[in-house]
Model the fold of this input.
Amino acid sequence: MKVLVVGANGQIGKHLVSFIQDTDNLEAKAMIRKQEQASFFEDLGAETAIVDLEGGIDTIANAAEGVDAIVFTAGSGPHTGKDKTIMIDLDGAVKTIEAAKAAGVKRFIMISSFDTTREAIQGAPSSFAPYVAAKHYADEWLKRTDLDYTIIHPGALTNDEGKGQVKAAVEVDRGEVPREDVARVIVAALENDSTVGKEFQLVTGTTPVKDAIDSI
Done:
C-alpha cells in the first residue's frame, strides 16, 4: 500500500514516513512544500511530491495519483494567526479530501484535535477556538463523504520518546501523547480495516499500540 503523507515535514509526519518505510507492506510518498525538505525523505527511500497546500485541489490530486491511502497530518502550528489556521487546518484539509475523491483514493486518515465537538468550540479560549472550529468542520466534511475514513483525536502532543503504549477509545480522559506514538497509531490504523468509518481519542496508556487499535 502506497501512502501519501500530507504534512510529511511536520514532526508527526517525519516519524510516520520513517515508520512506514520500515514496514514490509507499506511505502510512503511524502508531500512537502519545499525542495530543500526532500533529502530527509529520500534518505529513507521515500518518494516525494512538492505541493503547496494553499494551492489548488488539482495539484494535491496529482500528488495522490497512484497511491492507495492519504494521511492528513498537516497543521498551521501554534505560532501562526487565524488566517493560516483557516487556510491549512480547514481549507487545506478539505482540499485534500476533495483531491482524494478526484484521484480515486478511498482510504483517508485525518489527524484532528482531541475534542472537536460543538461544545469544545464554545468552551475553548478565544485564541484556541478558531483552531477547534477549523478541525470540527474539516472532520464533518470528511464524515459526509464516502471515503474509508479514520479520524484520530490525539491529546496534548509532546516530543517525548514514544513508549509504544497508548489508550484509545471514542472518549478518554485528557492527557498527553508523544508524536512518535501518534505516528505508530497511524501505521496500525492503516494496517487494520476495522478502523474504517471510526474516530477515536488517543493518549498515552498501558496498552500496546496494535492491541489498542485492534480494540477500536
Q: What stands out?
A: Helices lie at 11-21, 38-43, 57-64, 82-103, 118-123, 129-143, 179-190, 209-214. The mean pLDDT is 96. The chain has eight helices and eleven strands.
